[in-house]
Amino acid sequence: MDDKLNQVFENLDRWRHLPNYQLERRADIFFSVYLRELIANHKDIDTPLLNVIIPEFPLQRGLVVDTSDTSQRSVKVDYLLFSEDRKTIFFVELKTDCSSLNIIQDRYLAETIRVGFPKLLGGLNEIVMGTDSGRKYAHLLRLLLDAGILRVIRDVSQNEQKVVCCEGKTYEIISSEAKIQVVYVQPRESKRKSSIPDVKHIFFADIIKFLAPCHDDFSKRFSASLTEWQQDAGLSFEPCDNERD
Fold first, then answer.
1. Inter-residue contact 177 to 87 (CB < 8 Å)
2. Do the domain assignments include residue 112?
3. Which domain holds residue 214?
4. pTM of the full structure
């Protein structure tokens, strides 16, 4: 195994126990490598997914958190994925510590299901209109275009409520009937029950099992760290050398 690759995971294993270190933000790229297959092979999903993953997908706060908030502020979904038939939109949340599961997030994720994806994309248009990062949002919209969720149009007169505008282009929302499926990726089953309707879970043990047939160094080393990450951070404590008997 490459020493530098091993060092990356050793650092994550150690640093996750520190008070201000957020493992989720550093490790999310590793989970993304396997995410499509993990969801597609979930026993309660079993559907092929498009080869498109959108990280940190923005949801306008006024739609899902606080209806009195008319700003362009947003909360984020860790990953957005799509079934090949585009009938299901997957909102995936990664938790590397079960203590970070919380009621507030459950509530707004449940609200996304009630609001529906077309309206959430309408909220995305409001975010785009109020941002100075138009070029970055153009890249986000390009991924939605690649996924077949949007298409470029020239005449907006017939679809004024179903468009997103960015960097001189106007996009029409195609998948208006797609349902939202929330999936939590988390270390293990939690005693706290989620309030999200029909939420699905992928536990780290499921990922370890999925990776078992893989023989590449990255998968084996990732699996080893996942085994440790099943336990909440801060619980294990290795004594320093000068503290040992």
1. yes
2. yes
3. 3-127+178-243
4. 0.90
